[in-house]
Fold this protein.
Amino acid sequence: MSLSARHTLSVWRRNASLYRRTWKVNLLPNFFEPVFYLTAIGIGVGAYITEMGGVSYVEFLVPGLICVSAMHGASFEVTYNVYVRLMYEKSYSVIVTTPVSPDDILIGEVLWAITRASIYGGGFFIVAGVFGLIPGVSALLAVLVIPLTGLMFASIGIAVTLRMPRIELFSFYFTLFLTPLFLFSSIFFPIDERLSGVWLNVAEVLPLLHPVRLTRAAFAGEATMTSVWDASYIIVLSLGLLFWAKGTMRKRLSS
Amino acid sequence: MQKTPNDTQPIIEARGVTKTFDGIEAVSGLNLTVPPGICFGLLGPNGAGKTTTLRMLYGVSEPSQGQIKIFGMDVGRNTRAVRARLGVTLQDNVMMENMSSRDNLFIHGRHHLIGEALLAQRVAELLEFLEIGADADKKVLKLSGGFKRRLSIAMSLINAPELLILDEPTTGLDPAVRHALWSKIRGLKGDGKTILLTTHYMDEAERLCDQVMIINGGKAIRQGAPRQLIEDELYPNALEFDCSSEEEQRLLEGASELVKLRTGTRLMVFAKDTEQILTRLQKLDGGNRRAAIQRPANLEDVFLAVTGTHLEDG
Ligand SMILES: Nc1ncnc2c1ncn2[C@@H]1O[C@H](COP(=O)(O)OP(=O)(O)OP(=O)(O)O)[C@@H](O)[C@H]1O
Ligand SMILES: [Mg+2]
């Protein structure tokens, strides 16, 4: 069985129904977090650092933090939540008694993770707008980068989750993978200015670097060949991982 | 709803179905034919391979060998089309615990792509049919086991299936709930649905099933109508009493044409006429000292006899 758009949508809707039940509790933290970041770092740290990358420090931070929000939104969904549905609640075992296929479930979950990423990243974007930190019309293009960031971290996360032996090990995924990405992907300082030679190429491996750079390009209103490379990286990595995860999902739900 | 091309075509047809897990055969060489409109029981002890068989039938698990046709279609190739026309109640209740029964039914129905208007109508009907209407809007986690089981069955009926697959529908439920569920299952059969269920309760199988198959260690060991199996395997009457193996010889001396079945100190004797044996027993003992029970032979006796409890022909 392959992919069917309408069946995939039924999986997305299942998650959306559950989220809607508790949307107030789910939605509010998405707005508090950016407010805390922007006040603490904008007003606090920003008082000591007057400029970075040609803009005020708080303006420098906004593009990266939007991507980080999207990354976290997608990651929680496809790690803990998918793992619980797979191993504890056994939700998929009842879904596969209907015409919904394992492929539909995989893509339905990814679409839902993209939705969560968009709610998180979009929340940050709106708060930044309220703070007057969205520089111009071109920055609206960054709204397109949010779901792309969601797609990439949903794909990475779900590929990991389908092979995860124990739920406790997710803490390694967060502390040894997502946290370093958060710290070294040109969010707090331009990483390329700290590196030289071959290390510049090595840094290109960091997944989060690409959406951050794309968002910055949108904020600055100048797309370059690097933007094409960044977008290609995100799409190719995501599709590759999803293709691989497809086989694993089929195996996990059959046997 | 689609009709099968002709009415005599079996709903389920499985040929030589085998499932191997890490070199061990959980199901081996199973042949199964279920005609339309009947209730078929798959009986077997824990680990016999009942659930594994069902999973292959609805196409979640691929057989290591053999062919399966449901509604005349190959399950592996026409999985979506087959599943659209069947409903499955899993052995464990799997539902969204934080949502209500009504929500669970709606969400499950959407996986079948049922339009919202028709879905609302089906949900209302099923809430009434399984008598869960009163608590339809309570969170599932607050409901009793019997209630959850009824909801599980309701979910598997949301697509108005022609074939209903029930994996141990009444395990762990109290007698009143079991009786209520049995009458629902009979009602569904009356509506023309074909039902395949698994159970290790022989009274359940005897009450509900037109045909049963007893499996053990993944192999079919007996198949037929419950009454027929009892007739074929045993004599119509049973006498149960406690006695040691040594005493047995003395107590049953002279009695012929009987089948004996022993579980520990309890001996069951099957014969055409158990009255005679009972009279002799009471004479030798000087009264009914062994808590002897006389009753008709049942499917449970057959099950114990054919799944390995020690059986001797006398
Ligand atoms: N995915 C699996 N991997 C390995 N072995 C399995 C798997 N599923 C089932 N088995 C084994 O296959 C055998 C049959 O299991 P199955 O669940 O079909 O039995 P059952 O008749 O449904 O038993 P029960 O009455 O306990 O539900 C068991 O020995 C079980 O351990
Ligand atoms: Mg079972």
In short: The pocket of magnesium ion (ligand 2) is lined by residues B 50-51, 91, 167 (CB under 6 Å).
